[in-house]
Amino acid sequence: RVGGHAVQDEAGLDGGGDRAGVGGAHFVDARLAGQGRVEHRRDGGPKAAGASLDLAGDHRSAHGILKSQGRAVLRSPPEGEAVGLWRIAYPPAFRDEVERWSAPVRVPPDLLQALMREESALDPAVISQAGAIGLTQLMPSTAKSVAKRLGMGPISPSSLTDPATNIRIGAAYLGELLARYGRQPALALAAYNAGS
């Protein structure tokens, strides 16, 4: 139970099934018990853990659990009970900003959303080993040049952890690459990932 609601009632899950290899529901218990929001359970697995964290508002951790431990669930189509899990695994995080900044640069919002999910696991403060920062994993030099073309003024590496700033610059950069590569998403995403 999370916030007084049975997980099954909110997400269509029974809490059973596969068990998480690294603690599953115990992770949820430890994470949320301090908030007084979870009754202790010993069953579950990645489905229950992901649903519980999502209900508690920790969408990033819910997404991470399903991405790493709930792959079997995501092999089935998003139908019936699986729809709720698909929504957790592919959350519309920062959707208002995604739609705001993707439209002017002709980037499909779902493409930008997918890029953010895969590049940063939806963590606005993440910094890669290569030094890419934020939701759209921008290299500071790339961000500075794109921001200059957008007339945004100086951009510091720390400003790239701001979701609105990062999404705006990342959307513009992806839009430039889509234009350069004939609006072919696969080529534009490969170039984005390669940093060119």
In short:
The chain has 196 residues and is mainly α. Helix content is 54%, strand content 0%.
Task: Walk me through this protein's architecture.
The longest helix is centred in the last third of the chain and has 18 residues, at 163-180. The protein has helices at residues 7-11, 25-33, 46-55, 59-69, 71-74, 82-89, 95-102, 109-120, 140-150, 163-180, 185-194. Helix 3 (46-55) packs antiparallel against helix 4 (59-69), helix 7 (95-102) crosses helix 10 (163-180) and helix 10 (163-180) crosses helix 11. The protein has 196 residues and is mostly helical. The radius of gyration is 19 Å and the shape is globular.
Set down the secondary structure blueprint.
Layout: H1 7-11, H2 25-33, H3 46-55, H4 59-69, H5 71-74, H6 82-89, H7 95-102, H8 109-120, H9 140-150, H10 163-180, H11 185-194
Helix pairs in contact: 2-3, 3-4, 3-6, 7-8, 7-10, 9-10, 10-11
